[in-house]
Amino acid sequence: MFYRIVHTNNDWAMTIVRLILGVVFFAHGAQKVLGWFGGYGFQATMGMFTQKLGIPAPFAFLAIGAAFLGGLGLLLGFLSRIAALGIMTNMLVVIFMIHRHIGFFMNWAGNQRGEGFEFHLLVLALGVAIVAKGAGAMSIDRLITPSGPVEERKVLRAA
What is the pLDDT of residue 146? Predict the structure, then answer.
């Protein structure tokens, strides 16, 4: 089971996908947890999620953790599939609870009452790629990938 979670190839395209998504979500998570990049920090974010948005505290905590730890996990390439699943879960919830009511497009012109869900769909697509293919090259997952099932070792030795 652990093998299926961390196994990845030396794929540089997946490395780029993982790092870009990791940078975006680490920055968003750092806003929520640390107050960096113009964010309000953990206490204020929890208050906004629970009081203004009505999200139960355990779910608010998980959402904040998924953004911050998921972004960090993707940057390091550590348990990348799990990190991507956490971020994808956040995006699905946000689409259905908030952004679907606004529409597809982002609010570039400032004439909508909020942002659409096009960004969230891109995040979901990148997440699906990471879940399917793994972290790629330059990742902790790549370093700790066990040698795998006997059949795979036989194929590698024959090559």
Answer: 66
